[in-house]
Every structure is written in structure tokens, then in C-alpha cells.
Amino acid sequence: GGEQVAASDGGIAWSADTTTSNSPYLVDPGSNHTALFPAIEPGAELTGVPGQIFDTERWDEAGGSSMQWAFDVAQAGLYEVRLYLGNGFEGTSNPGERVFDVAVEGAVPTSFDDLDLSQQFGHLVGGVVSSTVNVTDGTLNLEFIHGVQNPLVNGIEIVQLGDEPTV
Description:
Elements: E1 26-29, E2 33-36, E3 41-42, E4 56-59, E5 67-72, E6 77-86, E7 99-104, H1 117-120, E8 125-135, E9 139-148, E10 152-153, E11 155-160
Parallel strand pairs: 3-8
Antiparallel strand pairs: 1-5, 2-4, 4-10, 5-9, 6-8, 6-11, 7-9
């Protein structure tokens, strides 16, 4: 969650997603929370990704529905889903204190299972996890599933594999 961020590679800008103006792709905001954590630094492997995407996050507290996104895609085929994530909350700074899953098209891929950001990247460090999915119905669906504490996301990037542009 956060304001629009210009692309650092000359590509498509990272669209805004705030509590007062939800992303057009957000079909269920869950508890509809965003937070500001400007201390999160992108990891070294994130060349070409603007560090500002880690300054804010969308998160979902327990109870009620879960955060869900639906991205219209140009055509059926393979897409790479990249989730940009960073733990900024001091209360979940240790491994095991925030663990969640992300379902893609109704299934949780191995790389999105038991996401533990403090263990995988470290506290206050942003990173990316990705998975490839075959979309057959024209819409790529994501659902953030509670485990321990609250799921979060700093940025989502959908890339059609082949010659088509990023969504």
C-alpha cells in the first residue's frame, strides 16, 4: 500500500494503493490497513526496483475476509508473479513471528508457502519472491492467507512470460 511510485527502469509506474483510494486490482482489502516504514531497505538483489515501494505496506489483521487481488491479463498463458515484501514492524522482527501464505489462482505455490520475511530477508530488509502460474480465465487472482501474525505486501508485479508487457 502507498502512493504511486515512478519506475526506476523507465517502465510502468507502481500504482497507488492507499486506505482512502484502494488499488483498482484490490477486490477485497481485508481489514484495509496500510502502514509507513521508511526504514526498510531493498536488498542488493533488487536492482531496478525503486526502494520507495518498501516505504509503505498493505497488511491485513486477523478476522474477517483476507486481502485479495484480481489482475486482468491480456491473454491466457504463463505469468510470473513477483511479490515485494519487507518486515517493518518491530513486533515481528524475529523469525517465526510473522508467517503467511499467498495463494495464486487458488493454490499456494512452494515459493509463497510459509513466508517468514524476517527469516528470509532479515528485519527492515525488503526482498522479492516469485512464482510462475498458468492463467486460463483472463484473470490472475492472489489471496494473502493468515498464519502467524498478519500478512503484508509492499508491491506486486505481474509479468507475462514472452514478448508482452508487464501488468
